[in-house]
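Table S2 (continued). Query chain:
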Amino acid sequence: MQPHLKKVFENINEVQFDKDKKILSMKSAEKEEVMFVKHVDPNKKNVEDWMGELENMMRQSVRQSMLNAVEDYSKQKRSQWAVSHCGQVILNGSQIVWTNDV
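Corresponding output:
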């Protein structure tokens, strides 16, 4: 399944599994990792079902990462904040913070 992820989801290079084959997180080609809010369990499910669950969890987890980053912005120096979150989260989080400030 791992080799096909790049074809289905843009810049999702791999997903991490636990010992029970539940999906815990996703990693980009640049090795940035986003932990899932909840684990996705593909066991004993049709591929269409668990891939839909995976896609929904990707959205929820990126949204949560964005919320965490925006919340963290006022708690850290910008230089520290910028290296403590994923690149896309930093780009979009900066825009959210700037828009709120304006």
